[in-house]
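Lab channel / #folding
Pinned by the channel admin:
"Please post every new chain as: sequence first, then the structure tokens as a reply. Keep commentary short and put observations after the output so the thread stays searchable."

First post following the new format, from NK:
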Amino acid sequence: MRGQDDALRRDRDDPGHRELFHIPPAEGGRYPVAAYLAGNSLGLQPKATRAGVLAELDAWATRGVAGHLDGEHPWLPYHEELREPAARLVGALPTETVVMNSLTVNLHLLMVSFYRPRGDRTRIVVEEGLFPSDSYAVRSQARFHGLDPDETVIRSVDIRETLAAYGDRTALVLLGGVDYRTGELRDIPGITALGQEAGAVVGWDLAHAAGNVPLRLHDWGVDFAAWCSYKYLNSGPGAVAGAFVHKRHTSSVTGGLPRFEGWWSTDPATRFRMEPVARPPATADAWQVSNPPILAMAPVRTSLSIFDTIGMEALRERSLRLTGYLMDLLDPRLVVTPREPGRRGCQVSVRVPDAAGLTKALRYNHGVVADEREPDIVRLAPVPLYSTYHDCWRAAEAVRAEVDQL
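Reply from TO:
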């Protein structure tokens, strides 16, 4: 087995960007800082985040209401500063991208527009292991339309087989871009094309994909997508999320595409005329409802600047090197993540009898921070921005030591 010296040599040759982040102290083991491999659940805090938030607090303290129009980053157009870097992150046009709300709120706002059951075409196709909050969301959408969610929501093991059987009755396909349990990267362009050929709208939950794998939502023709910003995007717990609506839909906003509207859904040039009828722009901004929370958006702004500086392609390459190294160190009988580089993100999952027990032992006996999904999955995510080969080596050593005792 590769040893500690090999891991340290790899870190010297391929150091990543750990210096940009705060690394938590270890709660166990013999190392002073944690081997933090839980960025798929909550990313670490960039060192620049505090200054970004304090700058907005200072602006509020010194300018009051004038901060909406004055200062280095006026609040009125603040969300517009996030539009282009967010678009670059997910491979979209700026007009197709908006940073707003939280993930499930965005999915609901988008399904108002894109889940429109008619006649026999009412089904919503999701993956068998859909994340629970997404399941709650699609079932409640079916119920809202007067449909039985048990009949309407089709949980699929094989999307292609399901569409072959239900394609003419499917209104919406909604899937996770990366399987939150195994870390498997789905064929987003292929499944999108297949669903659309069947006559369905295809949307994606990119909570575990944004900031993890390169995306080209515009080129792939995805109808809509949403993602959170607190995992791989390192914007803090409950951070403001993002949404994508393809240009072919944003261009028809004024043509009657159903949406919920609010203060920020109208053209900013006419917003303060205080007119009773909204004038939605032909962009993803038309799906906004409320004015953005500036103090919560400041960390997103900091995070996106990091991704813009380093680039997703470079991060993806380092991600594959880290995950490949970690998978080589782990017992292959435990690993459930696909070994093929094109089929995984930066999460490596192992299956063990007692996932919660192993996660606790890793943390308090070895200073390795991972997380679990009951009953038998432990997730280890070497995030290319701040994780190291030594973190991976520590994790593999700890897993082996604890599993040998089970």
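NK: The chain has 14 helices and twelve strands.
TO: also worth noting, The longest strand covers residues 170-176.
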